[in-house]
Design goal:
The protein is an all-beta fold. Helices cover about 0% and strands about 40% of the residues. It has a six-stranded antiparallel beta sheet with strand order 2-1-11-10-7-8, with no helix packed on it. The chain has a five-stranded mixed beta sheet with strand order 4-3-5-6-9, with no helix packed on it. Mean pLDDT is about 85; it is low at about 120-130 and about 135-145.
Length: about 140
């Protein structure tokens, strides 16, 4: 079962050796790391097999509003080898806010986004709010005139 936040969309955008990947955070728990069994897999030799855990919490007094906390390691006390750098500071855990940057290792990072959903008078969501185009520089070609 998933819990939805009626007014916001939570995105986790990863950049690693294979480029960029976008994850809509819909579930209460995500494992992050190099191991294939992780919910969010990071491709890098500098990342631990179970590098971090992402946990969703409901905000107090706001039943349909939540936030995510990132925790170094497997969530059971075993820390990753290189730790987490969040907004330039080494941390064991952090309650994520919009545009927080998480560095897992050299050239492996994530950005957390909280996007406000816009609805029109009929209650429909304006899908243009979610149109995020990620361009990997290696995917573009120089065209000659």
């Amino acid at each position: 079962m998933t819990i939805t936040d009626d007014n916001k969309s939570h995105l986790f955008i990863i950049e690693d050796e294979q480029g960029r990947k976008e994850f809509s955070l819909l579930y209460p728990l995500y494992t992050i790391g190099r191991d294939k069994k992780n919910d969010i897999r990071l491709i890098s030799q500098f990342v631990s097999r179970r590098h971090a855990t992402l946990v969703r919490f409901t905000r107090q007094n706001e039943a349909q509003s939540y936030y995510h906390r990132i925790i170094d390691g497997d969530g059971k006390g075993k820390a990753s080898a290189n730790g987490l750098m969040i907004n330039g500071r080494k941390m064991v855990s952090h309650d994520l806010k919009n545009e927080d940057e998480i560095v897992f290792g050299p050239q492996v990072r994530a950005i957390y986004y909280v996007l406000q959903k816009d609805t029109d008078s009929t209650g429909n969501i304006d899908a243009s709010e979610y149109d995020i185009t990620l361009i990997n520089p290696g995917m573009t070609e120089d065209f000659e005139d």
